[in-house]
Write a structure and sequence with these properties.
single chain, 15 helices, 424 residues, Phosphatidylinositol 3-kinase Catalytic Subunit, Chain A, Domain 5, four-stranded mixed sheet, globular, five-stranded antiparallel sheet, 12 strands, alpha+beta, 16% strand, 2 domains
Length: 424
């Protein structure tokens, strides 16, 4: 018995040593993109250039030990230089002005407005997870576990997800990757936001209709939709079929981070009523490829059920069902899930999936197309089964007993709207 305990103790010590060796490869917590071929950026007039060769980040480069302990993830995609268009706010989309700075936990963002009133968001490709690092992790010198976890996100994942959404008939925010140099138009944000890589996309709230839908009243966020429901009652409904399709699409691309604040709603006028069409935003976690010894332990369903790695098969469906789903889809017939699953299977043929990867830079597609395609096709083939399971879990968990995320300050305490969108 003593020998067994001694052996276990030795294994534990070796494991701790490997952990610290792996996480000590860098002490950096944040780094912006790495621009190629320019030595002194302050001396470069980017108006003389139309594009720049840039790697999203070299922060996640790792040796064999790091890949074993913390996963291979998308390290190569992050460190591979690609050609990206250069943009200036005073000419982009006819001229954009900054409305305000966003407040995300990882993403640095700016809300921008065009001359015609259309709202856009400029979202940093490189993430800053400092706010997510627990004090105990810093005290133990393990903050790199959190920082390095960003390598599981694909820097071009949102762009690929948008193309697949377009093929599938799922509404999206049309993200495009741009390099934003330092410029006067950034004003007080020039130092923080200049010379960085961004996704420019439509905002999930807007008084201006940028979608292909006709008779749009406005585009609102989930909290505003709930307030409007209080006012209009049965004269406001959501397009449940569209939401089911959007959520099943999330399962296909492995986007596990789909809480209520990640959605907008396009309000379409139909006679004297309004129908809300779901609009998914923030696709940072599409194709979330998390591997390695440490992440596998942390993301075990018993420890962290919500963070699910992108594999050929969905390993834990309950972790992918959000309060959002129960709120909006409770008591929706199972047949509607099956119908939408079959529609997605019909749209996302092997040829369509292959064509979708053309939106990625060639060198990035060469790195990740084969693996992502294999997982996507496998999930597509099993989508009807997943749809039935998704429906079953929603029904099993039932209505909510607390507000949706982002709606905590709404006065819903004595309203059935706290439980579900169509609760009476």
């Amino acid at each position: 018995m003593k020998k067994i305990l001694a052996f276990v103790a030795i294994l534990f010590i070796v494991f701790l040593a490997l952990v610290y060796w792996s996480v000590s490869s860098t002490d950096k917590e944040f780094e912006t993109c790495e621009i190629q071929n320019f030595e002194d950026l302050e001396k470069i007039d980017f108006k003389d250039h139309d594009s720049v060769l840039v790697a999203p980040s070299s922060l996640y480069e790792g040796n064999i030990l790091k890949e074993f302990m913390q996963g291979k993830n998308y390290r190569e995609a992050w460190s591979t230089p690609v050609k990206v268009p250069i943009a200036f706010l005073d000419t982009l989309k006819g001229g954009l002005k900054i409305k305000k700075e966003g407040g995300g936990k990882q993403t640095h963002s700016l809300k921008l407005e065009s001359k015609d009133g259309t709202i856009y968001t400029l979202r940093s490709v490189t993430k800053d997870p400092k706010k997510l690092i627990p004090e105990v992790a810093e005290d133990l010198g393990l903050e790199n576990i959190i920082v390095d976890g960003i390598s599981a996100q694909h820097p071009f994942g949102a762009i690929l997800a948008a193309k697949l959404a377009e093929i599938s008939g799922v509404l999206h925010t049309h993200p495009n990757m741009l390099f934003i140099p330092k410029q006067d138009a950034l004003g007080e944000y020039n130092k923080k936001y200049g010379n960085r890589l961004y996704l420019l996309e439509y905002e999930t709230e807007s008084e201006k209709n940028w979608t292909s839908f006709k008779n749009v009243d406005e585009i609102v966020e989930t909290k505003d939709l709930q307030e409007l429901k209080q006012e209009k009652g049965d004269n406001l409904s959501i397009d449940r079929a569209a939401l089911i399709k959007a959520r099943l699409f999330d399962l296909l691309i492995g986007d596990w981070d789909r809480h209520a604040e990640q959605w907008g709603w396009v309000l379409v006028k139909e006679d004297n009523k309004l129908k809300a069409i779901p609009l998914a935003g923030d696709r940072d976690n599409a194709f979330f490829n998390l591997s390695g010894v440490i992440p596998s332990i942390i993301t075990n369903e018993k420890i962290e059920p919500l963070v699910r790695p992108y594999e050929k098969e969905i390993d834990y469906m309950p972790g992918l069902v959000y309060p959002f789903d129960r709120y909006f889809l409770l008591d929706t017939p199972k047949e509607l899930y099956v119908e939408q699953a079959k529609q997605l299977q019909k749209s996302l043929t092997n040829e369509a999936i292959k064509d979708a990867f053309q939106v990625l830079p060639e060198q990035i597609a060469k790195l990740d197309q084969a693996e992502i395609s294999e997982k996507l096709k496998s999930r597509r083939d099993n989508l009807v089964e997943y749809a039935v399971a998704f429906h079953s879990i929603i029904q099993e968990k039932g209505a909510l007993n607390e507000p949706l995320k982002g709606s905590e300050d709404l006065d819903l305490e004595n309203s059935p709207l706290i439980r579900c969108f169509e609760c009476k």
